[in-house]
């Protein structure tokens, strides 16, 4: 299996560190064959009201992102394959704009990171509010609506809700199964998120990837892909969480894929 990674951030999201080139050099050092940059997407918020955010680049920073990644792709083409992607929510009011945007900008792929409901100015963060059953239901609904657009290559941290949910109870099982079944039907891989594994390990709190969620994914027969979700270039070089993820998925008998469908 090739060691590829399609979940990589840059400093533009304002909560990551390491230059773009440092991420590429760490990936080469780690033996990664294909590196996809998938920084948190900008949206076309009205500039007059948008207060900015600490979770994504501004729209006017996108040109620099694209130019930098394409320059690195050319510079290191003999050592590593580089793809230009984005990690994207599902914000209905912006989706028509966004679909035009990814075509115009020739984005290679997008992954679904269903972080917020509505938008990140007004909507709640799903990582914090899903102890409430109604919010967990909404997370599932947004996830499935998003995937039905057909633009997303995979579902990042599908069990993000376990960041805020205290118990993996019967309702959590039902929602998890519905998400997994929808992904299976649409042939959307589920990402086993290494940044989440690191947080769970360090805090001694089982957040995501949650074993009960992945047990259900294995039963449903989903495809899995390992995503680093690197917010620091050194995370790409860390083999500990990668090997643990691989071992967990192998124990579950899941099909682990190492490449994704691209938009172009
Ligand atoms: Zn992030
Ligand atoms: Zn991410």
TrEMBL record:
InterPro entries per UniProt:
Histidinol_P_phosphatase_HisJ (IPR010140), PHP_dom (IPR004013), Pol/histidinol_Pase-like (IPR016195)
Q: Name one Pfam family in it.
A: PHP
Pathway it works in: Amino-acid biosynthesis; L-histidine biosynthesis; L-histidine from 5-phospho-alpha-D-ribose 1-diphosphate: step 8/9
Q: Which domain of life does the UniProt lineage start with?
A: Bacteria
Q: Which reaction does it catalyse?
A: L-histidinol phosphate + H2O = L-histidinol + phosphate
Q: Which residues form a coiled coil?
A: none
The EC designation for this entry is 3.1.3.15
Listed GO MF terms: histidinol-phosphatase activity
Gene3D superfamilies, alphabetically?
Answer: Metal-dependent hydrolases
Mind telling me which GO cellular component terms the entry cites?
cytoplasm
Keywords on record = Amino-acid biosynthesis, Histidine biosynthesis, Hydrolase
Q: Which GO terms describe its biological process?
A: L-histidine biosynthetic process
Q: Where is the PHP domain?
A: 6-193
Q: Which family does it belong to?
A: Belongs to the PHP hydrolase family. HisK subfamily.
Q: What is this protein called?
A: Histidinol-phosphatase
Q: Which organism is it from?
A: Breznakia blatticola
Q: What is the lineage of its organism?
A: Bacteria, Bacillati, Bacillota, Erysipelotrichia, Erysipelotrichales
């Amino acid at each position: 299996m090739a060691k590829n990674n399609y979940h990589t951030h840059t400093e533009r999201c304002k909560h990551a560190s390491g230059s773009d080139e440092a991420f590429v050099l760490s990936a080469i050092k780690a033996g990664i064959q294909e590196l996809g940059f998938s920084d948190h997407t900008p949206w076309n918020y009205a500039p007059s009201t948008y207060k900015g955010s600490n979770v994504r680049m501004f729209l006017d920073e996108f040109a620099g992102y694209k130019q930098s990644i394409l320059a690195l792709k050319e510079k290191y083409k003999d050592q590593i394959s580089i793809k230009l992607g984005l990690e994207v929510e599902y914000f209905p009011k912006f989706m028509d704009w966004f679909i035009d945007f990814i075509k115009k900008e020739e984005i290679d792929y997008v992954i679904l990171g269903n972080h917020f409901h509505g938008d990140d100015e007004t909507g709640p963060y799903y990582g914090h509010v899903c102890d409430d059953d109604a919010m967990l239901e909404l997370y599932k609904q947004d996830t499935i609506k998003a995937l039905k657009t057909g633009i997303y290559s995979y579902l990042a941290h599908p069990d993000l809700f376990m960041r805020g949910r205290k118990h993996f109870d019967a309702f959590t099982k039902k929602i998890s199964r519905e998400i997994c079944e929808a992904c299976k039907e649409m042939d959307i891989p589920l990402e086993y998120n290494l940044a989440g594994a690191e947080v769970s390990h360090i805090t001694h709190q089982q957040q995501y990837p949650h074993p009960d969620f992945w047990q259900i994914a294995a039963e449903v027969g989903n495809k899995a892909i390992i995503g680093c979700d690197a917010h620091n270039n050194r995370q790409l070089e860390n083999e500990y969480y990668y090997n643990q993820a691989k071992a967990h998925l192998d124990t579950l008998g899941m099909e682990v894929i190492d490449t994704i469908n691209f938009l172009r």
